[in-house]
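TASK: fixed-backbone design
INPUT:
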């Protein structure tokens, strides 16, 4: 087994820190279309789920109202 005999010095990090081949800015420039597509798809899914939740709530309230009306009118 090899044992590490020294502790390496910590590297200074900055706002332009490189990770592999890219900086964050390079990544965004190279992949802006895909990032935009993912954001748009996520927004569409969220809007659709909110719409469906409102419709389910309205149907539930309507069913509850009808059930209350039918139980009070013999």
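OUTPUT:
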């Amino acid at each position: 087994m090899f044992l590490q005999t020294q502790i390496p010095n910590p590297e200074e990090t900055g706002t332009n820190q490189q990770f592999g081949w890219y900086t964050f800015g390079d990544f965004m420039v190279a992949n802006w279309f895909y990032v935009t597509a993912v954001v748009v798809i996520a927004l569409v899914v969220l809007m659709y789920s909110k719409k469906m939740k409102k419709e389910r709530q309205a149907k539930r309230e309507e069913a509850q109202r009808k059930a209350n009306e039918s139980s009070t009118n013999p």
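COMMENT: The chain has a mean pLDDT of 83.
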